[in-house]
Amino acid sequence: MTTTTIDPAIGPDRARALFDEELAAARTDAAVQALRNRWIARQGSWVAAFMERLAQATPEEKKQLGRGANELKKHVEAALAGREQELAATRRPAGAVDITLPGRAPRLGYRHPLSLIRDEVGEIFSRLGYQVLEGPEIEDDYHNFEALNMPAEHPARDMQDTLYLAEPLMPASYEPPTRGRAPLEPQPLTLLRTHTSAMQIREMERQDPPVRLVAIGPVYRRDNLDLTHTPMFHQVEGLVVGRGVTLADLKGTLTSMAAALFGAGRPVRFRPSFFPYTEPSAEVDIQCLRCDGVGCPVCKRTGWVEILGSGMVHPAVFEFVGYDPDEVTGFAFGMGIERVALLKWGVEDIRLFYENDLRFLEQFGR
Amino acid sequence: MKVLLSWVREFVDVDESAEAIGRKMSMRGLALEGLETAGSDALLDFDVTANRPDCLSITGIAREIAVAYGLPFRAPAARLAPFAAAASAASGATLPITIEAPELCSRYVGAIADVTIGPSPPWLADRLTACGVRPINNVVDVTNYVLLEIGHPMHAFDHARLDGPAIVVRPARPGESIKTLDGKQRTLSPDMLVIADAAHASAIGGVMGGAESEVAGGTRRIVFEAAWFKPQSVRATSRKLGLRTEASMRFERGADITAPPLAMARACELLQQIGAGQAAGPIIDAYPRRYEPARIWLPQPRIAGLLGMQVANDEVRRILEALGFEVNAGDGGWWVRAPGWRIDVHRDVDLVEEVGRHHGFEHLPTTFPGVQQAPSPSDPRITRDGRVRQIALGSGFSEAISFAFIEARYAEPFGDGKAVTLANPLSEKFAVMRPSLVPGVIAAVGHNRRHGRRDVQLFEIGTRFARSGEERVLALAWTGLATPDHWSGGRRDADFFDMKGVVEAVAAQFDVTLAVDLPADGSMPHRVLVPGRAAIVKRGDRVVGWLGQLRSEVTDAHDVPANDVVWAAEVALDVLAPAGASTAKRAMPLPRYPATVRDIALLVDESLSAAIVRGTIRSHAPETLVSVVEFDRYQGKGIPDGKVSLALRLTFQSPERTLTDAEVESATTEVVELLAREAGAVRR
To answer: What is the ipTM of this complex?
Structure first.
């Protein structure tokens, strides 16, 4: 606030306007006191200077200007008292803290987005009465391929490029199968599982029907790193076997899962496809989340994005594990966790999931 | 498979738009991958699944469209069959065909034609171009046109360049070589099949022709080939030679053994039609292994039993017959024979799929499988790991997920020298299965530090690999401040005891008490750790992990900025808290009598560990001493060199009565005297 004295030559009306302007800016006790000194103090204020000047005026002028000066003085006193009251009302009590300073945030870590999706999917299927399983990441050829109806020369093996161990390992423990066609001898572990479907075989060998499970975990393929591929990714595998399990049951189950993951209003399409270990086979598409079906680069202008492959368990697979395909039917599905995360959150580069950059990880929640 | 709509319409009168056809066929098993308009025409790109080589053709796709729309399909066979039959029946073959390996080549149809080589007419060349095939000359273009239209690969040899002239289908001779059409000289092995003349190999069966017998400008007479090769053999040859062609791709998926005469008839017809030449003799059909389609029994209830929807019997028959199956009603079902091009159909479920897909999955109701019994328990590791994750998150660590394969040089300091390595890694960066999760979290620390993060706390729960098997572990890494920066101060870097506290908190979650200790044999706790700032973690006698400050060589290797102090730990969860271990607990009643606390301060040698002080107290203290906690440790001003002031809080409590001051006092004095005697402690 300026401390220069005010020209006493300005009249009370102009003085009042000037004071009001200054008052508007006075937000502290000190500022209010400064205004008082400047305008109405016995000495050195505008009123004091004005009165001094008035002494030389004619009686007529004295009477008129004197009244104006008095009114101004009253106005200033009242206004300053009012402002002081206002300030008093907002004054902090003794021992008060400055509540506008930052709080002391507990340091809590953030969940990895893939871990969140994994749990979400596990939760969805737990509610539907599925057991949730994990399994070995190094597999033998029989469980990863052969028992899934992919013999050595099957063209479906072209669809996945497998990572093999330089030297096979022998399993730490081995329980010979009690039925089915699994080899009686422990099999050398030769490869990194290319899909969680290997768990279908392991569990059907172990459990009698009915079976109702999801298996979740990392899988490996010989794919180069790019925007949509990583050589390791995560899958969730579902398997239901029992009497009278149908393709319609699969459609219902996957439709409800898609609704839980992507929102109930999201259109879902269930269309025929091919996998060696299911017959009939189906893929599930959801309407593109980017363009809502209009067509965009994400969905290759089709309006739909594929989220998973599925189908009715192939009778040959049942024969491998020693289930009677005339007695039981079943469905299976496999879904990429990364793919769900990419679509759900609009992540454009799958490699971000493996960089562990905190600026990325901190976006998804605890 | 790219198909021109106008070409498809030669076989089925579908008047829907290309978009509508694409949408419809996507729901029938032919997913539309792309759609381009080509003038008044349209090019539809369908994703053909591996089981349907028959759909790698215009007619294959036209047949599917016809079934989907309930329209008649104009099979080329109907027009060409008489032509083919007449030609086949003709005798007086002018071309001897010998098949020495009928297992690998079960049918070979050949014909001789006189030709005038020149360019194809524009309509034909344009169609090839639209479908992605480069026009070469009228004869080669005819073979490619037939390939695209009918789906059966063909080949043409220059008759004059064949020794004999004869066709001999035989395994390659050891060391035999051939220059293929792409100009490369290739050495063959006896597991490969060649088409030879009387002397030399002139083509690699089902893969590529030879340059020697190539049809070129001066060719006057040709031999057309339409054969059937065994899929496995073509695949193996194509792989071994690194040579994939339109022909090999179709043969390895499985060609139609009934198609060669048809393809030959179409080729001869087309040759004549475009004025490129005409057949000079009969079509010769060497067919040593006749194909017998299997009869498949399709029980009527199987359809609804598998699909969960009813499909009318008329509709079942309509779909199967329109797809080319031979259907005969039986008792409660149908006897079905698959056409030669449906190499994917073997059992009733395959037929159910055909019925379901063309009836439409969109008509399937949405139901849920019934529950017959309570679900079996889930993998107990999931719950266990979830509890570990809670502690890590609550201690400020964010969750990392890293690749399970790492570079050998990163794995080496963490392994036992017998790492699990990959035979065919993508690159050196992904060559070894991680023997520890710590390298992954250090790499993540380095990444975050290089991107401007000062404080980094990361954990990962995952699998580590050894030749003895897979193991689930927790890895932790911490660099920077111990607590978030705050205006109130209290700024301090993370240290050993921060990390130790977290590891102990994880163990406490499972009611496990860990010993953080040094190896009994005097060795270093871990070679990646700074000596004196490192410890092993034991549960009873078993080592479950380690913790400490990482050596700078280790952090440097991961490009963590120099001078960063990084604390790390790794804990084997399956040893710390075996999944599924009993968690039975009984509640303890609350104490009925108050506790009494006494603080004592002692001057001891700085080399005397807290554990020894605590142990000495514990070994002699009365039962009423329920806890001993170090609450202050001080060195410096007022403390003699080589000494440390240690403050201990002793808590006394009895479950039976309130302890008297005198009792507590005398017990405390006893403790102090004991420490003076056994450890040279002086009370301050």
So the answer is: 0.90
